């Protein structure tokens, strides 16, 4: 990336994998979920090395410092080299204790609807009780 080009904030947040899509990143910026020095910033804002942002995602509230500019989405192991995670430890603890299924919307294994065998057993039990 040359010095003349400017990297948009929405593209950067997507490239470092804080958001799944660029449109979700832009939407978060539009709704004021990304702040710099306590002030909401726009998606078109140019990113500079050394900038610090507070980013509120569905999962947690990040505090990141830009250590390098990244325009294209890369694998996670590579992406983490372009920012420094300054998220407070108490936020990390809060996230750790939340159920993993809370954010995905999926049920935990072995919880929820009965299996076919369990359903048959229930129906057999109910039928026996009516006689």
Question: Explain this structure to me?
Answer:
Residues 7-68 form the RNA-binding S4 domain. With 131 residues, this protein is an alpha+beta fold. The chain has one domain (9-105): Roll (Structural Genomics Hypothetical 15.5 Kd Protein In mrcA-pckA Intergenic Region, Chain A). 37% of the residues lie in helices and 15% in strands. The protein has six helices and five strands, in the order ααββββαβααα. The protein has a five-stranded antiparallel beta sheet with strand order 2-1-3-4-5, with no helix packed on it. A hairpin with a 4-residue loop joins strand 3 and strand 4. Helix 1 packs across helix 2 (22-30). It starts with 8 loop residues before the first helix and ends with a helix.
Helix and strand topology:
Elements: H1 9-15, H2 22-30, E1 34-36, E2 39-40, E3 52-56, E4 61-66, H3 76-79, E5 83-85, H4 89-97, H5 101-104, H6 116-130
Antiparallel strand pairs: 1-2, 1-3, 3-4, 4-5
Helix pairs in contact: 1-2
